[in-house]
Amino acid sequence: MHKGYGRRTGPIWVVVAIMAVVMVIIARAGFKSFQSAEDLYKANEVYYVNDKGSSVAIKVMDIDPEPLVLNGHHYYLVKHERGVAVFEAKSDELKTVLEAKKAAGNAENALEASNLYLSVRVTPEKSKGKGSNVKVNVTPEMKDAFYKKYKESPLYSENAKTKIDESRILKLTTSKDQWGDSALTLVMLAIVLGLIGFQIYQTRRLKAQYARFDAYFPDYANNMKQLLDDAEYVDPKLKIIVMEGILVSYDINFTVVDLSEVSKAYLVFENRRKGGMRVHLRFEYANKKYDSILFRRQLLRLKDLVEYLNEEYNLGLKVDFRLLG
Questions:
Q1: Structural domain includes residue 101
Q2: How far apart are CA 148 and CA 22, in angstroms?
Q3: At 204, is the secondary structure helix, strand, or coil?
Q4: Are 181 and 225 in contact (CB under 8 A)?
Q5: Are 129 and 56 in contact (CB under 8 A)?
Q6: Quick one: which of 117, 134, 116, 123 has its CA closest to 50?
Q7: Nearest alpha-carbon partner for 312 in 239, 254, 250, 232
Q8: How many domains does the chain have?
């Protein structure tokens, strides 16, 4: 194997491995919203009083059956293993929990033995809005109302371990959340698979280019550097070699071009706001396929290369070199 092939494909496979890990993480996150609350809890996907984006579970220890009503929304105080949470829900959504509470009475942690679990989503105090704006989900007035309700609630305790978190609101995971997760997961997986496919394509392309080099230059297959000394045209800055009608670009995208097979050659200028000018030297063949070599630096040196290719191989490259700066 050519050292250059390993050097160029090594980073590609590293990217593929990273993308594969990302794909597993994305798929797992999307799957979580479809798991039952108990399964999430047993898998340790538990609410740790943080701004978790995906579905997590809580084990219900107790509930204040009297909701706080603010602006038409009903907020219940639900005690779980790590404190007391503010839960936005309608009574029918928490029917099982409320019925269990009614049957269990007012003992401390009345629902602990009931093994009731809820799959929830966390609404943080603040979230990203449009552009650079910040959306406030829990206002100071709401926080004050939540804490006042907690002080009046049978769940109130001086114990710091069971204090209320008035900065976040929990909601049940809904079918809308599930389908939203599914759509996002599918989009992300499509992107990741596309990137993996592109990286695999790049690897195969490089393998084919190195095989092409070996076919044209069998004497240099094991000593490619020697070609730098023997070639008819060498530009180490542009990383271009021309030898016996074969052009070799030994930059990151290793490319071998048989100039006798080229039906058309031209330059494409790409002016980017960030990164400056980029130039593509494109070679088209009779079968409609093409090879393209990208130049990002030392662009003024293209003048010598273009003049050489026109003079020696009559490629008819036309360019206004004033565009190169």
A1: yes
A2: 43
A3: helix
A4: no
A5: no
A6: 123
A7: 232
A8: 3
Q: Which domain holds residue 204?
A: 1-33+173-208
Token pair listed for 93:
């959504």
**Is the same domain home to 149 and 183?**
no
Per-residue pLDDT band for 297 (boundaries 50, 70, 90) equals: confident
Mean model confidence pLDDT for the chain = 85
Q: Which of 109-113, 179-183, 267-271 has the highest mean pLDDT?
A: 109-113
Which pLDDT belongs to residue 276?
73
Q: Do 304 and 226 share a domain, yes or no?
A: yes
> Rounded CA gap, 197 and 17, in Å?
12
* DSSP tag of 47: -
- Burial (CB count <10 Å: 0-12, 13-18, 19+), residue 120: buried
What confidence tier does 126 reach under pLDDT thresholds 50, 70, 90? confident
The residue from 164, 188, 208 where one domain ends is: 208
| Residue 279 confidence (pLDDT) above 80 | yes
197 and 165 in a single domain? The answer is no
Distance CA 235, CA 193 (A): 37
CATH code, 284: 2.30.29
Both 185 and 134 in one domain: the answer is: no
Q: Are residues 141 and 228 in the same domain?
A: no
